[in-house]
Amino acid sequence: MLVLTRKLNEKIQISDDIEIQVLSVDGDQVKLGISAPKDVDIHRHEVYQSILEANNQAAKTINLKNFFKKD
């Protein structure tokens, strides 16, 4: 894992088209602004994990339906 230190209003550049800026720091809470192309999905980690879990469950359900499908 790369660890970087940034101050208020400083930025991090990821490739040519993703930029992360520290917008505010209040105690242990940090607000980040992220500029990225619209085709790049950005989620909090816990939301992304929930999406993956829901997709996995849906895939299992679809596979079971196809397995029991009668032609």
TrEMBL record:
Protein function: A translational regulator that binds mRNA to regulate translation initiation and/or mRNA stability. Usually binds in the 5'-UTR at or near the Shine-Dalgarno sequence preventing ribosome-binding, thus repressing translation. Its main target seems to be the major flagellin gene, while its function is anatagonized by FliW.
Name of the featured protein: Translational regulator CsrA
UniProt superkingdom: Bacteria
Keyword terms: Bacterial flagellum biogenesis, Cytoplasm, Repressor, RNA-binding, Translation regulation
Subunit structure, interactors included: Homodimer; the beta-strands of each monomer intercalate to form a hydrophobic core, while the alpha-helices form wings that extend away from the core.
Any Gene Ontology CC annotation: cytosol
Pfam families named among the record's database cross-references: CsrA (PF02599)
Organism per entry: Pelagirhabdus alkalitolerans
Homology family: Belongs to the CsrA/RsmA family.
Matches recorded under InterPro entries: CsrA (IPR003751), CsrA_sf (IPR036107)
Main location as per UniProt: cytoplasm
HAMAP family: CsrA
GO biological process: bacterial-type flagellum organization; mRNA catabolic process; negative regulation of translational initiation; regulation of bacterial-type flagellum assembly; regulation of carbohydrate metabolic process
GO molecular function: mRNA 5'-UTR binding
Cellular compartment(s): Cytoplasm
